[in-house]
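quick one, 388 residues, struct below
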Amino acid sequence: VLMIPSWYPTPNNPLHGSFFRDQALALSHAGMQMGIIFPHFNAPRLLLNPFAWHKIGLRQENDAGVPTYRHSVYRWSNDLRALSESWLAKGEELFDHYLEKEGRPHIIHANAAHRAGLLAHRISEKHNIPYVIHEHQAHYVRKPRPQWVRKQLKECFAHASARLVVSEKYGEKLEEIFGESFAPWNFVPNAIGQSFLSRSLPAGAEPARAARLLSIGNLIEHKGQDFLLSAFIECAKEHKDWTLTFLGDGPLRPALEEMAQSAGLAERVIFKGNVARDEVIQELDECTFYVHGSPFETFGVVIAEALARGKPVVSTACCGPYSIVTEKDGLLVPVGDEEAMVKAMKQMAEVHSSYKREDLRERAVARFGPEQVAAELIKVFQSVLSPG
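---
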């Protein structure tokens, strides 16, 4: 199986697309012979950072037994069409190199159609290799693509041997947007990273203490941290000892810090920036419950990871969480309804101990564990390669 991700972890951003890497490792552990090709654009600003990893050119690495080929270049244009063609051209070069070194794959697994799926389609037309598209991208809903991109994507979807989505409601939305070219589709979720499962849950009962809320994600406009912080500020008026921690970084951070400062909560709203996975796990283990305020998520793997660490969740009902958060796992509130979010936060602070950590973890692993997701993907590959 040759996996082509549309984005992927780099030394500068090790969590970016980490769920694609988790997926590749899960398939490898399940017995699939895996390979990865990934063309990568470096932002020109990295040239000004002497500590940034910005090695350009083609490089090969063995990532836990998975041969991974990258081709890094600098992005000098913001023109969408030029960027797309450049990415696809580098991808075709990478595939030719992969073909020479690793041999012909039986099937291509493209994670997200825009870029990876388009590249898989080009390779398929030239080499007659079937491809599967696993769709994750949110911008089809957040910011519709130009007409020329939609035309390319429709053709790409139509020729795919299978179309997968990471949540049921997202599949319904994509079928509305792309019509017959996206039908039929199958639901295969993202996998929880093995690192969230290999460490045991903390022993003993949850200690009695003030509520410690945790949110994880890039601090960017469409992730809803401003909405989440506004709801927390309302809760903090009544609950003087609650804290809210943000893991992640981005351009919205100064505005969020100013919001907290203006509300007199600079000491109780903590911004830790980008952290390694070990610290993410530690923060999840130490929080009272996990909160998510996004207006739209195709899935929301951080929510599944929180459940895997035995933490109940309060989230907006923003598409993907419908496939994750049941009434046994936490509370869903309408998107953008701050009053409902405040009410849910207060309710969860009172009842969080009624959610049993082991039960939350067990249900999450049964649905989103790496072995389970790998098995579902392998069934799809088998159905493509051996119909009937």
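The CA atoms of residues 211 and 349 lie 6 Å apart.
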